[in-house]
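Lab notebook, page 48
Experiment: co-folding of the full assembly
Goal: obtain a model of how the components sit together before planning crosslinking
Operator: M.T.
Materials (sequences as entered):
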Amino acid sequence: MPEFMVRVGTFDGPLDLLLSLIEERKLYINEISLGSVTDSYLTHISSQEQVVPLGETAQFVLVAATLLLIKSRSLLPTLEISPEEAGAIKELEDRLRRYQLVKQGARLLERQWGTKPLRLPARARIVRIPVFTPYGIQLQALVDSLRALVTLLPTESFRETATVTPLVSLEEMIDRLKHRVLSSVRLRFSEIKSSERIEVIVQFLALLELVKGGFVVAEQQMPFDDILFETEGVSTPRYGV
Amino acid sequence: MTELMNQSELSKHIEALLFATGEPVQLARLAEILSVRIEEVQASLSLLSSHLNQGIILVHNGTQVSLATPPDTAETVAKLLGDPEDREVGQAGLEVLAILLYQGPTSRSTIDYIRGVNSTSSIKTLLLRGLIERVPESGGREMVYRPTIELMYHLGTQEPEQLPDFTVLRDKLAAFSNRQESVTPTSL
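Observation: model returned without errors.
Model output:
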């Protein structure tokens, strides 16, 4: 069978080889046809010159074993085969029939592969027209423009700032206290003490001024104690200053 | 989205989404955007398909959906856009695709068993070309391969069911896979 020699190695596995041997002879897949192609199959694998992976070779040999069994049975009708062997024969036939269907499908796919491809909608590209197109711009021109622009920029100016809090003047405080002491006759410092530290100092100085001026008399029991003020001559209220 | 959205409203919104993106969209994603169940999205797809103009068709592979041009306009569209880059997939690749399309999602070991030969490199090539994808088997622990929506574009088919001889081949192949469920493949 010289024509088979040419095709050595072009078969994709033992099933492919076996199926093509059967289809070449226009046979159906059954035990008889398998028995009749056994010799061709064996010629093929023994003449295989290409180095095939061990796993692949094993597959070819495995199928060959089943084929030899079939062949032996056709030559020796009295040969008893085990259920396991019968199963192997059945399995090989089934696999070939199934593979034949797959090849049939593959041929159908091949026939229409890429002949009438479907196309997806192309994404629309939105082209934006630039607002202005710089024309004949040179680097120096850009630098000059930029320099000119920089001179126009407002410069940041610093202005000294300070927070000024209104303060009560000593005179004002003396006036205010004099009035209060005179109107209430007797007064404790704690009653008039401001919450502002700086004002407390002014108040205290004002009171000292009043004491010095003889408008009030101050009395303190012990250091840091409250200070009691009263106008001179509490018994005889004076009107007006 | 309101729960009161009826099927025709739903199909309108799906059409708008597919038109706006121009790309395939996961059914699950559509369901999420429209606040409905995947089954409702699937149900309104056939309505949408029947409402589309003649120059636009709905393509889906079961998990993804997109709008596309119909196969019989391919030549005309190619005059405007040019022919798509469409390399051959080779005999082994076609066989793997045939298994996945006509039989459904299949594991690598089953593909190997059916073809009687190691299919790793064919599968890898198909994966790289985006024609198939690898996903966990529904409810199973095995990884299976299944056709992508991109494969549908190359084949010019709206859905796998519209492939030639689909029902015949599917039923015949199903008979084999059912029979072999109980048998553990001893050889490849």
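Interpretation: The longest helix of chain A spans residues 83-112.
Next step: discuss with group before ordering constructs.
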